[in-house]
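[job 0412] stage=fold_complex status=start
inputs:
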Amino acid sequence: MICSTCQDCRHLIIQPDRLEQAIPGLNILSSAYGCVRGETGLCQRHDKFTTARSTCPDFACRTDTSQEAS
Amino acid sequence: MSTQETWNESSENAVPRRLGWRELYLKEDWWAIWVGIGLMALAIALFNQGNPLLKTLAINPGGLKWTSFDQLAGHFSSNAQTYFLQFISWLVIFGVSSRVMGIKLSRFIPSFIFLYVLSIIMFSIAGWASAAKFNLEAPLVALVVGLVLANTVRMPDWMDSAFRVEYFIKVGIVLLGATFPITLVLTAGPVAILQATIISVTTCTVIYFVATRMFGLDKRLAAVIGVGGSVCGVSASMAIAASVNAKKDHLYTSVTLVVGWALVMILVLPFISQALGLSAGVAGAWVGTSEFADAAGFAAASAYGKMAGNEDAAIKAFTLMKVIGRDLWIGIWSIVWALIATVVWEKKETGVRPDAREIWWRFPKFVIGFFVASLLMTMVTSGFSADDFNKVVKPNLIMPLVSLRTWAFIFCFLSIGLTTRFRDLKPVGWKTFSAFTIGVLMNVILGYILSVHVFAEHWAAL
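[job 0412] stage=fold_complex status=done
writing structure:
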């Protein structure tokens, strides 16, 4: 696997359950499990909402990516 | 790595793969389609065999009109087995689908048991013969009871696992399609889209310019609350937050504003509509242009529909206006704001080019289920005469599906209240509050003019 976009960055919270924990109230009248969210998440490094397709100089590949590749 | 590991909360370092086709079983929109269309297909198959199983299972005490507790107790004791089977069916349907999406069953099951029992109580209250006299409409009672419980009793956060507001409302909307002739969708749809377009563009523009020019607020925050107020509340805010790289606080602010105003609207709009003597269809369209979230709007439209004695018309008008009309704008605004952010604002900071495919990626897919259900049921029932439809099809096929839809809605309305913990919401500055409130007023006033005057004839005819 080639680490390049926020999708593979360890700073990005993209899992729906973790996203709903990170933003209290998100599940009241919405849901992180819905299609409208697309593949977006919360960047913990910059405290910003971003798409998984984004790139950034602070990219840090997830630690278990190498295990996944092997 | 398995799907479950990918979205397991304990797997913080897991590599989230692009969903692709896996979206079909990992997103609740698709599950709403599978559940809704599945129930409908089962209903049609059993109807064709003359099997009353689904009709029996679709029981609820909402229409009981009981006058004494003995009568209510008698209903439950004579139908205890049916209720148990119904509970198991719902538990399996929502439990299995939630598990596949990554929610732990050890949390979901106890929470769902609580939700089901509370739903039975809500239905029982609504089924009291004098309930209408005191405006004890099930959606309003469920919302208020949920709110009181969430803010007075310290329930553990994990119980939110079964309080899936959006999932329940999406299942309900797909089932609603089964009672919505496709001809009505096709004839009324264009007017709904026109009215939604006027509202969406006007309100979003007004909130953005008021926030940035009058109050000097951050343009990203302005975009997030602008779309949140004009299209689809928190869901739309989430989509736009990613498009413009908004801060977490911007989205959190939008959550507070949307939830606060949505609750006010649920409790106020039905009574204003009643005071103005609006027809159910007109009020449904007005709620559809004024409310921000599908779930909140359904609660308001359903409550007023019951007050006006024509819930069907209010829900149909609301669905056309909000779900078919306004929600379609989520993907469009995502592209527009991503373009503005990358071309007009700081390109370096955003770092991702807008992609036209966003419109499809962010499309609320459960709407497809609504259309399929509508088309399928229209085809199935088209061969019956009006007399046969009313005497055979309606009681044995349509009404059981209506009852199942009502169950999904009551789960949803309770969940809205049960997840709304005011202590969790973020305090909002007066400038942000004012900018959003101006947008709210724009929705309400413009929505009223369009629904009650410009397109009144159209909505009243539903």
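[job 0412] summary: Chain B has one domain: 28-460.
[job 0412] exit 0
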